[in-house]
């Protein structure tokens, strides 16, 4: 999922936007700061990551907590609802791995015909 050559939009469904599934994966191990999320999600801009986190928070999948000690910082964590998405994400990733070649062939065929119209 985090491989730069992997077209993550080949997964069969999305929660929220392009980055939401990967954010959920990043938060699977526990709370993380914004800067910690930027490391594995190196392809996302700060603006888009902020928008994605806000959407996930709005939809009840992520909770944002402001910590004041020892230094002020913000952490993001999955809610119980967000955690409930891990199983479906696992299934979607397994499906995508099983059908990888077919998905890539369909994508390439679609790209080739898109220029014909």
TrEMBL record:
<feature type="domain" description="HTH hxlR-type">
    <location>
        <begin position="6"/>
        <end position="104"/>
    </location>
</feature>
<dbReference type="InterPro" id="IPR002577">
    <property type="entry name" value="HTH_HxlR"/>
</dbReference>
<keyword id="KW-0805">Transcription regulation</keyword>
<dbReference type="InterPro" id="IPR036390">
    <property type="entry name" value="WH_DNA-bd_sf"/>
</dbReference>
<dbReference type="Pfam" id="PF01638">
    <property type="entry name" value="HxlR"/>
</dbReference>
<dbReference type="InterPro" id="IPR036388">
    <property type="entry name" value="WH-like_DNA-bd_sf"/>
</dbReference>
<keyword id="KW-0804">Transcription</keyword>
<keyword id="KW-0238">DNA-binding</keyword>
<protein>
    <submittedName>
        <fullName>Helix-turn-helix transcriptional regulator</fullName>
    </submittedName>
</protein>
């Amino acid at each position: 999922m985090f491989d730069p050559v992997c077209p993550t939009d080949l997964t069969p469904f999305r929660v929220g936007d392009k980055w939401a599934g990967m954010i959920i994966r990043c938060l699977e191990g526990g709370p993380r700061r914004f800067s910690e999320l930027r490391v594995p999600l190196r392809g996302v801009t700060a603006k888009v990551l902020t928008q994605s986190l806000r959407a996930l928070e709005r939809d009840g999948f992520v909770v944002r907590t402001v910590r004041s000690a020892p230094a002020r910082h913000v952490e993001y964590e999955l809610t119980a609802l967000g955690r409930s998405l891990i199983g479906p994400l696992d299934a979607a990733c397994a499906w995508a791995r099983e059908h990888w070649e077919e998905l890539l062939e369909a994508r390439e065929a679609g790209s080739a015909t898109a220029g014909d119209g």
